[in-house]
């Protein structure tokens, strides 16, 4: 049984992809045009998802590469660095994580540079469910959110009851955000309704307590067409964010796959009036990388997404380079890696 929230998106799968954008009369910030009770089945979802325009891979990669060459001047670079710091989900997702490591990471998220209190805090700390309570205590009283991976991260191969228990454990411990992984095997086999239903169920479990980020593991989806389809499927099911990767496979966030997802959230808002965030994760390690992604955001979806409520970096080592570059702009010299904490 789908929630009323999910049914608001179900009607879209019965619309032809070239249909005009419906009028989004808003009630409480949510469009009311899609309240018709339509069951999302494999056939209706396949018709919609496979009816999306095909991706021009050459054009997409050329556009992403072109935007990556934009030069950033000193003043703009200082702004971009602070913006990027504020968008980092500072992450530790290792089997060797200890309470001490999580507390240290939380302290760093709140005050990334203890020698300069003008440095913005990061957006969140991202940990496994059993570390949520520790992280929550470490960032108490700050703006830093606690995100938790869930649904049998990173493989996503577990019964739905186990996945939902994973989510409930994180939320009960105080998680503000849930980063769930989809069942890539089900998606690639064309079992779109199964993926849709799991996202809906996780969203319902989150309730009003936590925002939901849906991870596609783009490196395993094989084609840009699949990434576009996964993006729309996640948004139809109620994702608050769509996220590229777990950071646990060979191919993670790239400018091209992030550009494609940005185009998807732009088009989704045009059709529904609902804004969805984007989170590239994995492989973004330098300030230069981060600035390229911010340019993608600015040029594709605009200022509405240039805020950590709508755009995040899933990263661990990125913050250190951002801090070193920030110190370089302030002092005229590089402080070196010894002046930032090793995560």
Could you characterize the architecture of this molecule?
The protein has 343 residues and is an alpha/beta fold. It has a single domain, classed as Aldolase class I (TIM Barrel). Helices cover 44% and strands 11% of the residues. The protein is built from 13 helices and ten strands. The longest helix is centred in the last third of the chain and has 18 residues. The radius of gyration is 20 Å and the shape is globular.
The tally of helices reads: 13
Profile the largest sheet.
8 strands, parallel
Name given to the CATH architecture: Alpha-Beta Barrel
How large is the radius of gyration?
20 Å
CATH topology: TIM Barrel
- Our estimate of the beta-strand percent is 5-15%
Reading off the top of the CATH hierarchy, the class is best stated as: Alpha Beta
Please supply descriptive tags for the structure shown above.
343 residues; alpha/beta; eight-stranded parallel sheet; 13 helices; disordered N terminus
């Amino acid at each position: 049984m789908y929630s009323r929230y999910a049914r608001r998106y179900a009607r879209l799968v019965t619309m032809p992809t070239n249909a005009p954008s419906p009028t989004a009369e808003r009630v409480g910030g949510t469009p009311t045009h899609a309240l018709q009770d339509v069951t999302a089945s494999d056939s209706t979802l396949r018709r919609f998802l496979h009816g999306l325009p095909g991706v021009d891979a050459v054009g997409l990669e050329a556009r992403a590469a072109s935007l990556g060459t934009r030069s950033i001047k000193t003043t703009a670079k200082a702004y971009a660095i602070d913006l990027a710091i504020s968008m980092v989900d500072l992450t530790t997702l290792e089997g060797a994580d200890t309470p001490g490591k999580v507390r240290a990471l939380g302290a760093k998220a709140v005050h990334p540079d203890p020698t300069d209190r003008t440095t913005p805090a990061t957006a969140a700390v991202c940990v496994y469910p059993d570390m949520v309570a520790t992280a929550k205590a470490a960032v108490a009283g700050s703006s830093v959110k606690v995100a938790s991976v869930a649904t049998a991260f990173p493989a996503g191969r577990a019964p739905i009851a186990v996945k939902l228990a994973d989510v409930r454990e994180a939320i009960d411990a105080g998680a503000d955000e849930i980063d769930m992984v989809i069942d890539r095997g089900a998606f690639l086999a064309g079992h779109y309704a199964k993926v849709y239903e799991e996202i809906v169920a996780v969203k319902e479990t989150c309730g009003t307590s936590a925002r939901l980020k849906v991870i596609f593991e783009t490196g395993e989806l094989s084609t840009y067409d699949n990434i576009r389809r996964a993006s729309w499927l996640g948004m139809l099911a109620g994702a608050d964010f769509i996220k590229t990767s777990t950071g646990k496979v060979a191919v993670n966030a790239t400018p091209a796959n992030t550009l494609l997802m940005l185009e998807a959230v732009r088009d989704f808002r045009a059709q529904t009036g609902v804004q969805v965030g984007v989170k590239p994760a994995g492989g973004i390690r330098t300030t230069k990388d981060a600035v390229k992604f911010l340019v993608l955001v600015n040029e594709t979806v605009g200022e509405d997404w240039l805020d950590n409520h709508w755009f995040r970096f899933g990263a661990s080592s990125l913050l250190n380079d951002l801090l070193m570059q920030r110190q370089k702009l302030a002092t005229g010299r590089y402080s070196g890696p010894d002046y930032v904490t090793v995560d």
